[in-house]
Every structure is written in C-alpha cells, then in structure tokens.
Amino acid sequence: MIFYKYLLDITRFNVLFFVLVWLISTLNIALGLSATLGMFVSLGVFHYFQEIEYYFYRNAGWSKWALFSRAWIINAALCFIIYLLRVCFTIWR
Could you list the residue ranges that cross the membrane (predicted)? Predict the structure, then answer.
C-alpha cells in the first residue's frame, strides 16, 4: 500500500509533464518522453516538493531506487499500452 502512494505522486507529476508536452507536440512524442524523460522530471519535482516523504518510505523498508524503478516500469508499461491502443484504433478506422 505504501508503494501505491509513491506511485500516485510520481504519476501525477508525470501526467502533468505528459499534458504539457502533448500541448506543444504530437501524442507519440508526448508518450515517448513521458515514458523516459518524464520519469526523471517527475522524480526531480517529487524530490523538490516532497523530499521529506522519503523518510517515511525508508522507515517502511523502501529505498529510493526500489521505489523509482518500480514506478518507472509501471509508468512505461502504461505509456506503451496507451500507444498500442492508439495504433489499434488508428488501424481500425
């Protein structure tokens, strides 16, 4: 349960990054950047605004690397699924 709080916080910043990139570029570029660079931007924003929460996660037995790597895998998978759905709907039209 503790990991899901971190995932929600990181994903919230990543979605904001995704929307900002999507406004100035295409959906494919926004998905690609959100899956790669967006996670590092989200990590930086989380570190800047909510760094004190890392003590909570550390006391619960989670390291920064364990939290970030799992969140990155989940967010990259979500971006890939959204991309596949977009491709499938484009083909079916």
Answer: 6-24, 69-92
8 HSE (CA, 13 A, CB side): 5
Query: Rounded CA gap, 26 and 11, in Å?
Result: 20
- What count of other Cβ atoms lies within 10 Å of the Cβ of residue 7? 16
Helix (H, G, I), strand (E, B) or coil at 17: helix
Q: Give the SS3 label for residue 36.
A: coil
Domain ranges of the chain: 2-92
The model carries a pTM of: 0.82
61: left (phi over 0), alpha (psi -120 to 50) or beta: left
Cβ pair 34, 10 in contact under 8 A? no
Question: What value does the CA radius of gyration of the chain take, rounded to a whole number of Å?
Answer: 15
